[in-house]
Amino acid sequence: MEMASTCSIDRILLDLESILNSSRDRYVHYDVRVAIKRMKFLKTFLMCARKWCQSNDLYLESDNVVEKVSLPSFLSRIEDTFHKYEEDIHSLSLRSEPDKNDYSIVNRVVFLEIEKQIKLPKQEIIQIYFALASSWSLQSNSCMTDDELMEFIDLILQNLADLTNGDMVICKFIERSISAALSAQFQGLEAKLTFLKSFISFAKMRGTADIPALLLVHFEVVALNVARLSYMCSYLDDAEEMHNPEFFSMIYELQQKIRAVDFHVYDTYMEVLRASYCSASLHTPRMQDKQILRNFNDSLISCLWELLCYSSSFMDSMKDEMHILYAGLRFLRSILREQQEKMDEQNKKIGALLSEAGIIICSPPLNRVKEGEVSFSESTQVLDFCDMLANTNINLKHVKDQISGSSTIESLPNFSHSLRAPKVSQTSHLMLSKGQMPIAHEVMVGLDDEAAKVIERLIWGPEQVEIVPIVGMAGLGKTTLAKKVYNDNSIIYNFHIRLWCTVSQAYNMKNVLLQILCSDGKHSWMDDEFQNLDEHALLEKLYKKLKENRYLVVFDDVWDIKVWNELRISFPDDKKGSRIIFTSRYSNVASQVEYGEKPHYLRPLSDKESFELLQKKVFGKEDCSQALHGLGMEIAEKCRGLPLALVVVAGVLATIEHDIWVWKEFAKSLTSTMVSGTDQCKKSLELSYEHLPCHLKACLLYFAAFQEDEKIGAKNLMRLWIAEGFVEKIEGERSEDIAEEYLMDLIGRNLVMVSENRSTGGVRTCYIHDLIFEFCKAEAKEKNFLQVLQGYDELSYFNEPPFLHRLSICSSGEDFVKSKLFCPHLDTLLLCNATPGYNKFHLRNMSFLFCIYKQLKVLNLEGINLMLKELPAEVEALLCLRYIALAAWNMALIPPSIAKLSHLETFCLYSHWMVSLPDSIWNMKKLRHIRVSRGCFIPFSSNDHVVENFSTLPNLDTLSNLYLCFDQEVENISRRIPNVRRLKIFDCGEKNRVCCSMSRLECLESLTWRGDYLSGLRKHVELSFPMNLKKLCLSHVGLPCREMSLIEQLPNLEVLKLRVQSMEGRKWELMEGGLPKLRVLTLEYVAIVEWIETDPDSDDYFPCLQQLELDGISYLEMMPACLGRISTLETINVSFCGDGVKSLVREIEEAQKYNGNENLKIIYGKY
C-alpha cells in the first residue's frame, strides 16, 4: 500500500477550512487557524518523505546515538494517528451554523489533542529532513521528477508565507525585533526557492526535456534544507527555543549557506541555459510561455537587485553595465506584461536574452564578491566577464529596439554622462508686499440659497434615514457647500452626531472608516482603541456609535456607489431623522442610492455672483475700481459660473498690476472655453501656473508627492521645501519664515486651500483641489520634476528615466520592497502611507536603502514601520541627507554615526519608546528640527559645566519631545540651543519643586512643558520664561495658583493651554493688566473652583481673547465677570463639564448679548 498518503491530511484541512469560514467564535478561529498551519507543515513533510520510502532506511543521530529508522513505519504511524481524528473533524464541519458557534470544551479538546499529536514527532521530522538532505546530496540521481519537485517547492513557499503573514504563532510569542530578523531570513529563502521553480519551468519551455540529474539533486537538497528550516521555525513558541539565542544564530547561518545555484553546479546550470539559448527549435508555443518568461525574468531581477545593493566592491564600469542590464530586464518585464504582435517570435528572443542574463547573474565571480569572499578586481575572470556582460547589454538593446522601435522609446540609460538632476531655477526673492497679498480666507458667494435648500431637506422631512446627494461638475463648489451646511448652527443644534469623510477616486475602506470615526475630534487614528481592529470591527464600532442618535454623515467626493454598499450596514435607521450627504460629480452615483432622494444639483454662479466672487478674492473688502469694473465683469463672465476657475483667475489678477492695459491684455488671453468645464478648467490652471515665479512653481508641483485630498501638515511641508532647496536663503532671515511666505502666497493665489489654522495663527494643515492635484501630478511628470508611482504594477514596471530627481511612492511598503526598485541617482524618496494605522508594512531590513540611495537629500519612510530597535549605523552612507523621517515603533537607540550626516536639517522619528540620541548630535551644526514622537533623551558629557566645552546647535528651530531633569540640565540645554523657537519637554526633576528658568532662550516662541506632578504642595517654585513666548502649554506641572502671575506677566503670550494638573490650588485670581495679547485660553481637567478677577469692575483683563475652551472642568463655581464684556470673544467650547459650568457659560452668553455681541458661538460637546 502507499505509505503516508496526504489524502487524510487534505480531507482534514478541507474540513478545518469549512469550520473556520463558517464560525464566528474567536476561540474557534484561533485554535483552528493554528491547527491548519501545523497540518500544512506536516503535509509538506509527508509529500517529500513518501518519495524516500521507496529507497533505503535512515539513520538518525541524536545525542551521539545513531538510531536506524524505518521511514515507511514512521509515516504509517503518522497516518494512523490522523485517521482517528478525521471523523471527529468531519462531523464538526457538518454542523449547522448555531451549533458551530456553540464551542464546547469537548470540541476544543479535539483541536488541542490534534495539535499535540502534530507536535509529538517534531524532533524526528527535523532529523529526518537533515538525514534526507545529507543522503540526497550524495546521490547521482534525484528521487523526484521535476514536476514533483515544483509541487514540493510550492508547499514550502506556502509554509514560508504562513510564517511571515502575521497569523503564525511566531508573531505572537517572540519579541518583535527577533521576529523581524527571522522574517527577513524567510523572505530570502522564499526568493531562492522562487528562482529554482522559475528556472525549471524556463529550462523546460526552452527545450530542455530533462534537467540534468546533478542539478536536480542540488535543487532537491536546497528545497529540503529550506523545508527543514521553515519547519523548525514553526515551533518557535516552544519555550526552550524562544529563549535560546544560539537557535536564532543557527537559523541565520543555515540560511546563508543555502545557495540557489551553488558554485559546484554552476557549470551544469550554465550548460542548460546555453543549450536552451542555442536551441534552434522550441516546442509549440503555449499560452503560459509568457508567464514562464515573466517569472524567470522577475527572479533574475531580484537576484541582480541583490548584487547591485552590495556592489561597492565592483569597478565603476562594472556597476554601470550591471545597472544597464537591470534596466533592460525591467524593460522586458513591461513588454511581457502586454500582448504584442508576433509574440511567439518575440518570446524566443526574450528567452535567449534571459538565458544570457541568467548565466551572468548567477556566476560564481559575482556572487563571491557579494558574499564578501573576494573583491571583483582580484578575480582572474574579470575581463571575460566584462565582455560577456557588455555583449549581453548590446544584444538586449538590439532586441529592445526591434520590439519597440528606437524612434518611439527611450534607449537604455547611458551612464557615461551624469545623471544628476538640474537644480530648480531660482529667482530673486520677490514676494508680494503685505498690501498686495491676495485674500487667503475662504470666500463664499451664491451659496446662501443653496445651503438653505439643503439644510431644509436635512432638518425636515421623513423620520427614516435619508441620503441627500449634492451633484455637480468638478470645481463647482460641492465640498464648500457641504462644509457650509455641516457647520451651520441649525445643523449643529439638530443633530447629536456629525461626522465627515473624504472618499476620493482611489479609496481604502479602513481609511474611510477611520476618517468617519475620528472626524468628531474625540479620537485619533493612532488610538490603541482603533489600531488593532479590522474593517469588520470598525463597521461594528461605527454602528454602535450611531445607534439611537440622530446623526449627519458627509461622504465627500464619491466616485463609486460601491463605498456606500460596503458601509451601509453600519448606519442604523432608528427613525430619528438621520441624514447622509453625498457629494459627487456623477449623477449616476446619486441615482443608485437606495435611501436617496432627488439629488441637489448645484448650479453655476450667475454673472453677477461670479463678479462678486472675483472682486472679493482680488480686492478683499475693497471695491473694484470703476475703471477696472467692465474688464472684471468680462473676465468673470468668461469663467461661466465655475467657482474654481474664478478663484484661480483671481489668484492671477491679484498678483499683476491693477492697470487697465494690463487687465485688458489678460482678458484677451482668456477664452470662455479655456476656463469652463473640467478639461477646460485645466487650461486656466496652466495659465495660473505660468504666472508663478519659479520657486513657487516647484513648491506647488511638490503637492503631487502627497495623496489626493490629503491634509498636509504645513510645517512638515515647509521643512521639505527647505530640504529640497526651493526656499531662498536670505541673510538674517530664517528659512522657515521665508517658506511660510511662499505657502501664504500660494494660498493667496487660490492654488492651495487651508484645512485647519493654528491657534497661534498661520496654517496647521492645507490641501489642494482634485483638479489642481491632477494638474500638478501631470506637470511634475512631464517636467521630470517628480514621478509618482501607485500600486505594485506601476512600481514593478517602472524604469528610472535619465535625470529623475524625485520619486514619490503612494503604495504599500510591501509593494515597495517587492518591486526591487533601483534608482541610485535619486535626490528624494518619499513613501506615502497607503495603509493607515497598524496596517503599515513591517520592513525587517533597511540596509538596501543605504546601499542604493546614497545620494538622497530627502528620505521619508513614514509609510513603513521599520522593525528595528536601533537605527543601523550604515545610515552614515547617506552623506547628502538633509531630511529624514522614519516610523519605527520599537526603535529606542540612534547610533553615534548619525553625526556623520553633516548636512542633516530635519530628523523625525515616530517610535513608541523613549529614544536615546547620541551626544554626538551636538556636533550636527545644520540641524534645524528634531522631533521624536514619544520622547528622546540626549546625554550630557561630564565636563559640560565648563562653558568652553559646550557644543551647540545654533540653527536648531524645533526640539520635540525632550526628557530632561530641569533642576540639573535646564541651564545646559539653554546654552546648547540658543535660537530654538519651538520646544516640547518632559520634566523628570524633583517632585516637590517646579523649576523652569528659560529666560536665556530669547527666541523661544512656543513651549510645551509636561512634568511628572501627581499631587501635593510644591515647596519650591522658580519660574522664568522668555518675554517673546507666544504659546505655552502646561500639564502635570502642579504650579500653585498663587504663582500664576508669573505667566500672566508675559507680554506676547497669545495661546495658553492649562491641561491636567497644570495648576495646584482652588482659586485662580487674575492679575489686572495680565495677558494683554492672549487670544486662546484652554482649561482642561484643572481642579480650580474659583476663577475670578482682582477687580471685577475693571476691563483690563483678556483684551484680545477670542476663544475659550473648557474641557473636563468639574468643580468650577465662579468665572470672571469680564468674560461677559470682552468684545473680541468669538467662541466658547464646552466639553465634559457639568451643569454648573453650563450655567456659568449661559450667564456669559447673556452678558455678551447685553453688551452687543450677538455673534458669540457656544459649542457644547459631550457631558
UniProtKB/TrEMBL annotation:
Domain Disease resistance protein winged helix, first and last residues per copy: 706-775
GO CC terms of this entry: cytoplasm
Highest rank taxon of the organism: Eukaryota
Residues annotated as domain NB-ARC: 449-623
GO biological process, one term: defense response to virus
Compartment(s) where it occurs, according to its Swiss-Prot or TrEMBL record: Cytoplasm
Pfam families referenced in this protein's UniProt entry, alphabetically: LRR_14, NB-ARC, NB-LRR, WHD_DRP
Keyword Magnesium: no
Cytoplasm keyword on record: yes
A molecular-function term among this protein's GO annotations: ADP binding
Record's keyword terms, sorted: ATP-binding, Coiled coil, Cytoplasm, Hypersensitive response, Leucine-rich repeat, Nucleotide-binding, Plant defense, Repeat
Late blight resistance protein R1A-like N-terminal domain location: 116-388
Coiled-coil spans in chain: 329-356
Domain Disease resistance R13L4/SHOC-2-like LRR: 853-1129
Family label: Belongs to the disease resistance NB-LRR family.
Function: Confers resistance to late blight (Phytophthora infestans) races carrying the avirulence gene Avr1. Resistance proteins guard the plant against pathogens that contain an appropriate avirulence protein via an indirect interaction with this avirulence protein. That triggers a defense system including the hypersensitive response, which restricts the pathogen growth.
Stated name of the protein: Late blight resistance protein homolog R1A-3
Gene that specifies this protein: LOC113734578
